[in-house]
Amino acid sequence: MFDLLFADGELQQFLLNTNRNTGWDNTPFEKYPNLTTKSKGTFGELFVKKYLSLKGHQIAKRKNSGHDCLVDGIKTEIKFSLDGIINHVAIYKDWDRIIFCYIKRPEEDSLIVYMNKSDFIQHMNSDYSVFSKQQGGKNGNNDDYMCNEESLVYLKSSGQAKCISEWLPEKPNKDFVISKRRTIEDYAV
Fold first, then answer.
1. Phi, psi (5° rounding) for residue 81?
2. Which of 24, 80, 88, 139 has an alpha carbon within 20 to 30 A of 108's alpha carbon?
3. Which CATH architecture describes the domain 33-181?
4. 93-125 pLDDT, tens per residue?
5. How far apart are CA 61 and CA 75, in angstroms?
6. Is the pLDDT reported for residue 79 higher than 80?
7. Pick the residue with more confidence: 188 or 169?
């Protein structure tokens, strides 16, 4: 049946004409907009883990599903965006720090910041929180928040979020052991 619907070429032409310029053509992120939502999240985590690893931070697999990984022994949640929206931020998950990575063009305009959980909770309980309920609106009874690029810029300029270059382990952990990674797949959780 579907073959008949496409037989005259009209539907196929429509699909070809909807190839839009995402603003990321001819960049390493060119195919990112075509990923599924889940794949975008996985890509974002992988991107941030690789970035931190290249900066000398120790990355290890997560202890549970309440965070994405351990960074220098700290339970860390990662949020990534190429379109200006950070989704699905939860207070009550098991993380100690959260990283917000917003990629822009040119590269030097990108923003990678983090917050300690205590600072995040304090911000969420304030009258000036930049996060809004993702689902159910203001009266929704869930732990799912979102913010945008301007919110991240505000958090950084106000000192509530710190530049990723300021990341330091909260305390040295002599028992923390990193297993060697052999391939990029070893980053996958």
1. -150, 140
2. 88
3. 3-Layer(aba) Sandwich (3.40)
4. 999 999 999 998 888 889 999 999 999 999 999
5. 10
6. yes
7. 169
Residues ≥6 apart with Cβ < 8 Å to 40: 32, 80, 82
- Cα torsion for 94, 99, 102, 103, to the nearest 10°? -120
Token pair listed for 8? 């005259």
For the record, the structure tokens of 114 come out as: 């983090």
Tokens coding 188: 């996958």
Q: How confident is the model at residue 189 (pLDDT cuts 50, 70, 90)?
A: very low
Boundaries of every domain in the chain: 33-181
CA distance between the termini of the chain: 41
Backbone angles phi, psi at 156, to 5 degrees: -70, -45
CA–CA distance from 36 to each of 41, 42, 146 (Å)? 9, 10, 19
Q: How far is the C-alpha of 138 from the C-alpha of 183, rounded, in Å?
A: 43
Q: Is 52 exposed, middle or buried (0-12, 13-18, 19+ CB in 10 A)?
A: buried
Average confidence (pLDDT) over 121-147: 81
Of 35, 12, 46, 74, which Cα lies nearest the Cα of 183?
46
- Whether residue 106 is preceded by a cis peptide bond, meaning omega within 30 degrees of 0, is yes
